[in-house]
Design brief:
This protein is mainly α. Helix content is 67%, strand content 0%. It has two domains: 10-92, no CATH class; 97-228, no CATH class.
């Protein structure tokens, strides 16, 4: 963390990293040898990858990035290649977690979403995480379920504010059509509890005709499935 940023003698470090150090460099800047030993230890002790996290720009840090990630600096011998890649800090999880770990985190996030059903904002946050983790794990089935659940919760948040307003006929029909499609997808994904939660959330804005048909086409199916279990 901030190895290069916190180094003393920033400009001499830049010259060293960019191949500009003269013959008297070692004698003139002997303290750099101590930090070179720390750097050597870090490089030779890591098993798979070594991450340098620099939270601020610095003369030495910028030189290190250039030295390690480009081929514009002359290397010893005939070899000329980039030694490292520059990574976005937000992608670190994707580099250090296995697929099984992503799957476990996804299942945990999905369980949190189900256990805190009353707090829709928190549920949505948990489902966003679940979708991300399942996608990183390559588990298309669970990712599809999490996306269906997320779409329903997001829609429930939207209609919460509309429940207090009088909707015109056209807007009402659009909302009712979307609810029917969401319910159909939820049943397909086996998210039976969310079918009921969506129906209850939308109850105040549904016409009696639509509510009757949704209850017949979806709610009755959910009850029937639960009874079979």
């Amino acid at each position: 963390m901030n190895f290069f940023e916190e180094l003393p003698l920033q400009r001499p470090w830049r010259n060293l990293l960019l191949g500009r150090a003269g013959s008297e460099f070692e004698a003139k800047f002997s303290v750099i040898g101590t930090h070179l030993k720390l750097l050597y230890t870090a490089i030779t002790r890591c098993i798979e990858r070594l991450f340098f996290v620099e939270t601020k720009g610095s003369v030495a840090g910028d030189a290190a990035v250039r030295r390690l990630t480009t081929t514009s600096v002359k290397h010893l011998g005939d070899e000329c290649r980039a030694l490292a890649t520059r990574s976005n800090v937000h992608d670190i999880d994707a580099m250090i977690m296995t697929k099984d770990e992503f799957l476990a985190e996804g299942l945990n996030s999905a369980e949190i979403a189900e256990s805190d059903a009353a707090n829709l904002d928190q549920v949505l946050t948990s489902l966003n995480r679940a979708v991300f983790y399942f996608e990183q794990a390559g588990h298309t089935l669970y990712a599809s379920k999490a996306r269906a659940h997320r779409s329903s919760v997001h829609f429930r948040l939207e209609i919460r504010s509309q429940a207090q307003n009088n909707l015109n006929t056209e807007d009402g029909m659009i909302i009712e059509t979307k609810i029917a499609r969401l319910m159909e997808n939820l049943v397909k994904e086996g998210l039976l509890q969310e079918v009921l939660d969506l129906f209850r959330s939308a109850g105040s804005i549904l016409s009696s005709y639509t509510a009757e048909h949704l209850e017949r086409d979806f709610i009755s199916k959910v009850v029937s499935i639960w009874n079979e279990r």
